[in-house]
Design brief:
heterodimer, A: 262 residues, alpha/beta, Rossmann fold, 4-stranded antiparallel beta sheet, 7 helices, 27% helix, globular, B: 334 residues, alpha+beta, ABC transporter involved in vitamin B12 uptake, BtuC, 5-stranded antiparallel beta sheet
Chain lengths: 262, 334
């Protein structure tokens, strides 16, 4: 079925949570190939739980979840879904080079008895080139700025050539210059046809990159449509609440902690 | 030296020390990475209960210690995987229970002689038998082989468990394998440095190596070198100075750490003096920044208003020509 094959993510009445308790429920969502979807919502709304559900990191409690045309539980090759977590340390309690971090993205595509060899360098350096960090490959990751470290995580997610990229707050907590560089990286990926699902607070940083907005609030989808429509949706909500028009870029005021269970 | 090597028990002791010095840091680097540096201590505590059962039943304490340590390590990983806050207390109960049961059983079996107990707690390398040495050597080969095969996976899981799970690596299985390797290392090291000091040789050589290298692969090599230096050197020194071998090994490891820390800060200070930063640099050079890229040795300089800029540890250096300290000369192909 042609329609099916262009559908990268399909959720029907899906619920996700932790330890048996639902955090997001009744989610109907379909992401087509090449779409760039921003997932917005206040802290604790369940947006991180939702995208982690696509990666098998939060529990799938009910409904249907299929990723790349396969029910999630039966998706064997997890490298087809790339993941950029929101993290502040990249390597735990030891130091490692940028290249060493990026190479870990290739491991699950190899059998366990075959460690990565020299041939793995080519895709790793290509992924670093995509995010503009090829010249830092042999640097200690801890010496990179916050924005550069995010790009290292994007390169790690890209190295196994995933068909869809799930990102959790890629632009949060980095300075404005780095945000612009990150937005440029995402724009290039989007133009190359990469399907992306991006949890974000800073929609303004991703203007022109995002095709579609999904808003999560209190564990439910509250908006699913175009960025233009979202501005209208926000203004309507604000009028209903008698607060005057909201910021047109849909940016949320609370940008501190990430909220939700990790 | 030749006098020392002419003694059978010293030859055995030095070979046992070599095994421990090699494998303890190889396994320990992942414990340091997971910020679980003290877990080896806990496994050592439980291993004592195994030793005690061996002594009480007049069997080899090594085998029963191995069984107890492996069981403990698997249990630790299962508790950790559940991720409950009560897990910490569960581990504490297990560790203290292990050492307490060990003390009680050994003293009961041994007629309250403390000699056997201290031997296991603080090491009694010179009593290592040839059969034990053969077993330690075989176990060390297995540990080293598994680590060499799986180290990239251990690195990935220890560095970012959530990502590893999302990318399809068998996280729990890898953690259990690493736990079992830790347990086997504890048992191999038991005779040489004792159950109370075992973690030291897994952790301190790695702490020293972290002072000298920014790459995981290179740090691993340094750590193994430091581990062998401390364990073999410590056993030799303890013979010459007539001191307790286990304690001497650990003190030597700490001395190596201090030397490495000094060398590391000296190197960083020299590197700072030998290169010039570019002026406050907000722009970030890259393939499409518009500035011409000039290959320079192992990196690329960018031509920026008549200056050559090279990326270095979060800033840009002015590269005239010669004086530049390479960030990390190691191969990164782990």
């Amino acid at each position: 079925m042609l329609v099916r094959s262009t559908e990268v993510v399909r959720l029907h009445q899906a619920a996700f949570g932790y330890q048996g308790r639902p955090v997001v429920t009744d989610v109907d969502l379909s992401v087509r190939r090449g779409e760039v979807v921003a997932v917005l919502g206040p802290n604790g709304s369940g947006k991180t739980t939702l995208v982690k559900g696509l990666l098998g990191l939060s529990e799938h409690l009910s409904g249907e979840v299929s990723v790349l045309g396969t029910p999630l539980a039966r998706l064997r090759d997890r490298t087809r879904v790339g993941y950029v977590p929101q993290r502040h340390t990249l390597t735990g309690g030891v130091r490692a080079t940028v290249l060493e971090v990026v190479l870990t993205g290739l491991l699950s595509s190899r059998p366990w008895w075959r460690p990565l060899g020299r041939d793995a360098l080519t895709p790793a350096l290509a992924a670093l080139d995509t995010v503009g960090l090829a010249d830092r490959a042999r640097f200690d990751v801890e010496t990179l700025s916050g924005g550069q470290q995010r790009r290292v995580l994007i390169a790690r997610a890209l190295v196994a050539r995933p068909e869809v990229l799930v990102m959790d707050e890629p632009t949060a907590g980095v300075d404005r210059t780095s945000q612009q560089v990150l937005a440029g990286v995402l724009r290039r990926l989007g133009e190359a046809g990469t399907t992306m699902v991006v949890v974000t607070h800073e929609l303004s940083a991703l203007r022109g990159v995002v095709d579609r907005i999904v808003e999560v609030d209190s564990g439910h989808l509250t908006y699913d449509g175009t960025p233009e429509g979202y501005a209208v949706h926000q203004a309507e909500l604000a009028r209903a609440a008698g607060r005057g028009p909201a910021a047109p870029d849909g940016r949320h005021t609370r940008t501190g902690e990430t909220g939700g269970a990790r | 030296m030749s006098e020392m090597l002419s003694l059978e028990f010293m030859r055995t002791a030095l070979l046992a020390a070599l095994c421990v010095g090699l494998v303890a840091p190889m396994v320990g680097i992942f414990l340091v990475q997971r910020r679980l540096s003290l877990v080896g201590d806990g496994i050592g505590h439980v291993a004592l209960a195994g030793v005690a059962v061996g002594v009480a039943t007049q069997n080899s304490p090594v085998w029963s210690a191995l069984v107890a340590a492996v069981l403990a390590s698997v249990l630790i990983e299962l508790v950790r995987a559940r991720g409950r806050t009560s897990g910490d207390l569960a581990l504490a109960l297990m560790f203290y229970g292990g050492i307490a049961a060990g003390v009680v059983i050994i003293n009961r079996a041994d007629g309250a002689q403390t000699g056997t107990l201290t031997g296991f707690l603080f090491g009694s390398i010179t009593t290592t038998s040839r059969e034990e040495l053969a077993l330690f050597a075989a176990l060390s080969v297995v540990i080293a082989g598994v680590v060499l095969l799986l180290r990239q996976r251990f690195f990935a899981v220890a560095g970012d468990e959530e990502y590893a799970r999302a990318s399809g690596l068998p996280v729990l299985a890898l953690n259990i394998v690493l736990g079992v390797l830790t347990a086997v290392t504890v048992v191999v090291a038991m005779r040489v440095i004792g159950l109370l000091l075992i973690s030291a040789l897994m952790v301190i050589p790695n702490a020293a190596a972290q002072q000298l290298s920014g790459s995981f692969r290179a740090a691993g090599r340094w750590a193994v070198g430091f581990g062998v230096l401390a364990s073999v050197g410590g056993v030799m020194a303890s013979y010459q100075l007539d001191t307790a071998a286990g304690g001497t090994v650990v003190l030597l490891a700490i001395a190596v750490f201090v030397a490495a820390a000094l060398a590391g800060s000296l190197r960083r200070a020299l590197a700072r003096r030998r290169h010039r930063h570019a002026e406050r640099h907000l722009h970030e050079h890259g393939p499409d920044c518009g500035h011409a890229a000039v290959p320079h040795g192992d990196h690329v300089d960018y031509l920026h208003d008549g200056h050559r800029h090279a990326a270095h540890e979060g800033h840009y250096d002015e590269h005239a020509d010669e004086a530049h300290v390479q960030p990390e000369p190691e191969e990164a192909n782990r």
